[in-house]
Predict the structure of Transcriptional regulator, AraC family.
Amino acid sequence: MSPKHKKLIVIVPMPGTYMLDIAGPLDVFAAADRMLCETAGKDDVGYEIVTASPLSTKKITTKSGVEITCPTKVDELDRPIDTLIVAGFSIRNQETGKRFCQWLKNAYPGMRRIGSVCVGTYALAEAGILHGKQATTHWEFSQDFQRRYPDIKVDTNPFYTRDGNVYTSGGVASGIDLALALVEEDYGRDVALAAARKLVLFLKRTGYQSQFSTLLQVHSMENSIAGKLQPWMMQHLQDDLSVEELAVHSNMSLRNFNRIFQKETGMTPGKFVEKLRIEMARKYLEDSDLSMEQIAEKCGLGGIVSMRRTFMRHMMVSPSDYRRTFRTSLQTVH
């Protein structure tokens, strides 16, 4: 059944946000609206898309330095909002953040649904909208987000999540995945697929955010046992890196080594070594022509079958599929 009026989509671009956070969802809704107008032949089907500034000014400066002039500000919106999407957020800008989050908290009950792109999840959390819900955000901020909001169930594997009428998406381009899902929810797969084809996009990307994330944030534990051991371990991935061997190399008793290592890193030494090996395997898959057998041997991952099983467990994709997706795009010119 066709709606009597176009659905009002409000995108809120936060200062310092990547252009793609904003432009990605905007273009998806615009493409879908055009498809609907052409096929339905009616002006009251589809989307009315508006960017609304969260500031006292209508001008927003993006991370790339490009300035966006919004036609309105959030507190000037006087029509029912179907869908509002917060693109980005800065937890450090206390004044802007607090004022906008209060507006968001008050306006949310009148919306059909609300969503976020990348760290826009912080705005929904600050407004209390995500209390007790499941959410995702950019993989790089998962630990910080979970620490700040322990009542929210954070899963940074999916590109986007839904909990009730609240939608959150992961890093930057995930806003496109979310927008396509919302279009499909509103008008069906055919319209969403037509919009995706128009923009030369996948309707649903394969994989998970984990394929883009860093398994180990070693730089954040430089003074820990793991941080001190890491350079040596990188040179000996092919060797025996058992807990006993690591303890001996650290001149510590096995019991004390285990206790301190887990306290500092939040994981067992064995799990740390496994993640380190997968990180190195990723680099070889991305940057080298080494065969799977050679990579498995160099990284201490056993044979091909063993490497594939371990890689799938951490990355949720096979090594060969990962290589096809993330291999350098630079080709030798003859």
In short: Residues 19-40 form the longest helix (22 residues). The first strand starts at residue 7 and ends at 13. The chain has two domains: 7-211, 218-326. The mean pLDDT is 87.
